[in-house]
Each structure stands twice: as structure tokens, then as C-alpha cells.
Amino acid sequence: MDEGKAVEQLTEEEAAAALAALAAEIARHDRAYHLNDAPEIDDAAYDALRRRNAAIEARFPALVREDSPSSRVGAAPSEAFVKARHDVPMLSLSNVFSAEEAAEFDARVRRFLGLAPEAPLAYTAEPKIDGLSLSLRYESGRLEVAATRGDGETGETVTRNALTLADIPERIENAPALLEVRGEVYMSHADFAALNARMAESGGKTFANPRNAAAGSLRQLDPAVTASRPLRFFAYAWGAASEPLAATQFDAVKRLGAFGFPVNPMMKRCESVEALLAHYREIDSRRATLGYDIDGVVYKVDDLALQARLGFRSNNPRWATAHKFAAEKAETVLDAIEIQVGRTGALSPVARLRPVTVGGVVVSNATLHNEDYIAGRGAKGEPIRDGKDLRVGDTVTVYRAGDVIPKVIDVDLSRRPEGAAPYVFPKTCPACGSPAVREEGEAVRRCTGALACPAQALEKLKHFVSRAAFDIEGLGAKQVEAFWADGWVKTPADIFRLESRYGEGLQQLKNREGWGETSARNLFRAIAEKRRIGFDRLLFGLGVRHVGETSALTLARAYGDWPGFIAAMDAAAPMEGEAWEHLLAIDGVGKVMAAALVGFFSEEHNRKVVDDLIPELEILPVAAAAKESPVSGKTVVFTGTLEKMTRAEAKARAEALGAKVSGSVSAKTDILVAGPGAGSKLKEAQKHGVEVLDEEGWLALIGG
Description:
Blueprint: H1 12-35, H2 43-59, E1 83-85, E2 94-96, H3 99-113, E3 123-129, E4 132-139, E5 142-148, E6 154-156, H4 159-162, E7 178-186, H5 189-201, H6 210-218, H7 223-227, E8 232-241, H8 249-258, E9 268-270, H9 273-285, E10 294-301, H10 304-310, E11 320-324, E12 329-341, E13 347-358, E14 361-367, H11 371-375, E15 395-399, E16 407-411, E17 436-437, E18 446-447, H12 454-464, H13 477-485, H14 492-496, H15 498-502, H16 507-510, H17 517-529, E19 532-534, H18 535-541, H19 549-559, H20 562-572, H21 578-585, H22 591-602, H23 604-613, E20 618-620, E21 635-639, H24 647-656, E22 660-661, E23 671-674, H25 680-688, E24 691-693, H26 695-702
Parallel strand pairs: 2-11, 19-20, 21-22, 21-23, 23-24
Antiparallel strand pairs: 1-6, 3-9, 3-10, 4-5, 4-7, 7-8, 10-11, 12-13, 12-15, 13-14, 15-16, 17-18
Helix pairs in contact: 1-2, 12-13, 18-19, 20-21, 20-22
């Protein structure tokens, strides 16, 4: 994939290669930032990676990966702290980077709510603090639990540490019986400089930036260390609450201030996009004088009732976004070009850069995507970078924002080393030696070895145990690599036979380097616990190309149970007939994904691996999103004009209640919601005897 090319110009293969590279890069940075408090890139660079990923997924929804960054928030909490589960997930925000994108955010909100462009719609705008997210749970006015964000669902308990901050009260008056106050722990520039001076003087380790210092100080096992650090706190939101704080975002935050929490004085209510952008420019102009780090401005719909209607995507709210500040450029040397083989066989070139500091962050690599990009050509043969190719030893300009980060945007030919040779892209797989074929019209070269290629088979196993798939505690990528190298695990089924093969007396496993009797027992127990697995997680874990976490859940809901799904895939294998049409009718399933599904389960080697695995498992049907919902598990189709909500809002609400929303009517449809103007779908529903409801009837059924 040409990282200099606009998303709209990408081919499907280029997009798939880009998503694979982005997923790996973002996961690595998530671990570095959230778990180790040692980010390798700054927020602008990280946000640009996620932005590119989201843009490609929006254009190619069938390519959404099982390990998509869009379905993740943060990183798993450290084992050094007691875990704390958030009643309301702590989600990340979507990002915009220009005035045009801010206006499009407003337009999306209006479209979802069915508001005209001229209709009044207020927002709040406030600085986005560059610190560590913290949730404070108060019960009857007393702080009971303070927890970091962690992975968004579960964080780390740091209550004693949080109580050492002067900005965090132990008790609050006149508050709801239950209130989760959320905000950001940060360190001022002056305090950061003084802390580093003290650390250097005493021979201790200094911090790279205030954010690292704040995160490292709060996440101390000894609260006395936290107490010695100059940490501050701004409150800006809330999670679980036994009663509403106010009717608007602005007034709710003001109430947090009345409880005694510091709130940002630059928060402002804005009545238009123009007012939002004016406040963005005002905050940006004062950025250098604030005395603490910010990396953008957060926009939120002010009316909390409208926020509730807008709801959430998989990992961010529809009613908020962060308008980020621009990043910077730097020059460095391209030291090497390496080839990595992905789970789908794509050969992805990676640039190894001589480490360079850009905006205080070290950049050392970039994804090059394909051979055309290296050669200075676009997908249609057009020149990129004025046709200049990339060679080892070149001095290149790296830009850490925009479409892809880091992005090589130029080459200084005057500084090219004498004798630097054009890069020759390999025609064989570096992992297995199989031919690497580039099909006509595609930009990505792929290994033809399939599961016979150790790189592909190993990457599929790593995916199988990943967090969104089987998530076996104690069995991560490193352990899979070690077991693979020793021949212990070659297929998913081998994981569940580890104990019977190597667990006698625990001798073989406990005697491995890095293992002991306790860790071996814990691993066997963790594996046994994952023999009971949800249908959707199993499907996700198999690593079918183009089937991501969201689409796996969609498919699981559509087919109900594993035997029914497998039977349907077999019936759809000819890619024609009723089973094939039913697969294509599932909302969110296109021809590319459908072909990948039936192709995967039709391929002899894949099927053997799957059939070998299934007897080891107890596969659970997908739990309904709302167990008491009258539409849970039912297939619903909307047609005609909806008058009390937009189509997007209706779909989101139905799916939140556990319904499956389809784009076409068949004999398997349970409910057709027909508004004015309903046409052929209404006739088809009547033909099949499908229950037909008007909008009022639908709202009455789901409880308004």
C-alpha cells in the first residue's frame, strides 16, 4: 500500500496490507504508552496512525481486522496492581485535524439526530490535557476506588496513591450516592523540570516528558513515592452516577467544580462550529503559556439527552471528538529495509530509521507497505515524492502526522551515498522460500505458502490467543513463539492438549526457562477455562481474512450457533443459492467477506485444523446484548421514512438491544419496521408472513 496515497485511491489489497501494518504498530504503541509509561511516539503521531486506520476501515468495512485498533482502548492493566472493572467503560475519543473535519463531525452528529444544518446545537470546547486518565468512585460522598483507564474495561486500583493528590478530595458533599468522577492526572512544566533536577541530582532516572512523569508517579507500588511527586488533577467527565448531575455537559462539569474538583477554566460553551474553531484557535495561541501540556481541544455535544441518543461506537462516543494540534518534521537516515510476513502472507517492507527526536519523541521505523512505494510509484504508476525511490543510506524527511506516521515524505538526493543501489523487492518469501506473487491489479506481494509457511501459521496462532480472541492468561505471543519453536504447539488444538502431552508431573513445562511449577499450573488452568468460548470469539480467533471482531459478532448473531454456521458455510460454498444469498443479506457482510468465509472453510487444510479444534471446546451461543429485550436475537429490517429517529439511530438502538439488523427481507426476517414510503420490502415481508410494525409499534415494543 502506498502510504503517500489518499485513502480513496487505495485498492482492496493495498488497504488490507495497510490495516495489517497499522494494527501491529498501534498495538505496540498501546503497550508502550498505557502499560509501560514509555511511549515511543507522541500523541499526534499515535492519533494519526489511528486516524489512517479508521479512514481505511470506513472505506473498506469488509476488511476490518480481528485485531483492529478501532475495537481496542488502551492496554491491559499491569499485574502489579489489583484490577478494577469500570461500571461504565472509559473510552477513547475520535480525532479531527482540520476545520473541515470539525465541520464534518458536526454534520455527522446532525445527520444521526436528523437535525437541519441551521438548527441550534450547542457544544462544549475545552483543552485536552496530556496526562493519565483516572476514575474516582465515590459512594455516599467518600472515595472508595481510584482506578486508571487500563484497557477501557478494567484498570488498575491506585486509591491510596490518588489520595495523596491535593486536588482529589477524600469526601465530597451534596453529591449523588454513587458518582464516578473522571479526569486527567498531569504535571506542570515547572514541577516537571524541578522533579527531573532532583532525580538527576540524586542519581535517579529522569523522565522524558511530563506525561511520563505523571503516569510513572501515580502508578507506584509505594504511595509515599506518589506523595513526593507534584501531581495535579483536572476533572472533566463522569462515569456511573446514581442520579444526573445536570441537563448539560457544561453545567455538569460546573457541578464537579462545586464538589471541590479543579475543572479547566478554559472550558467554554459554543453555539456553532465557527465558535468551536474560534475557541480552538484561542487555546492554541495560549498553549505555550498554560504551564502544562495539552495536545488538542475536545468538542462535546452539550445537551446530555442528545448525548444519550447519539450513544457510542465500539470504542468512542459519537457525541465527542478531539481536534488535535499539528505535528512536526525531521530528517534522518534510512538504515535498512526489512521484510515482514503477515498472517495473510503479505510481504510488508519496514523502514528502519536512524533514531531521530521529533518533538521530544524518538522515531525509529516506518511502514513502507509495498514495492511501488519504495520505487516512488503510485498504484497507477504515477510518481510519488516526484518519482524519487528509497535506498538504504538515503537521508529522508519524516513527518509524524497526516495520513500515516511516521511517513517518509521526501528524499534528499544530494546526500545519497555513492554506490547506493535501488532496492530489489524479494520475489520469494523470506520465511519459507515459497514464491511471493503479486496478482494483476494489486499492490501487495503475497507468499503462496499459506499455512505451510511458518510465518503465516505462527502469526495465526498469535492471533488465536490474542485479547479479543481466546485471551488465554499466561499464553501470549512470546510463549506461543517459544512453544512453536520447540514443536509443542503447531495448531490451535495443540494448545488444549498441552497438559495431556507435557503436563505429567509438570516436569517438562516447569523445567523450561522462565517457568516454574506455579506458572505451569496457572497456564494449564487458564487454558482449561477457555475451553468454554463464545461463538463469536472462536470465529474471530480463527483469523479468517476480512472477518474482524465486529463482523464475527454480527455473523454469530446471524447464525445463532456453531453447527448452524458451519452448515451454512458448506451450503454457501458454491457461492450461489439461498445460503449464499442469506450470507450476503447480513448487514455489514459484503461479497469480499462472504467469499473469504466460504473459501476459508472450504479449503482442506483449514477445515482439518478447525475440525481438529472443535472437539476440544464447548462453544457458547452469543449472549444477547440485552437479555430482557423483546427483540434480542431477532432479525429486523427498516424501510421507508422514520419520523422520530434517523435510520442510523434506529439501527444502533436495535443492535444495542441484541437485534440483528439486515438490509433485505427474507423468510428468516422476524420484524419489518415500515415507515411512510415503504415499497418492495413491505411487499416481500407480506409475502413471507413477516411481522410488520410501524414506527410507533416498534417504539412501543422496545420501550420507547
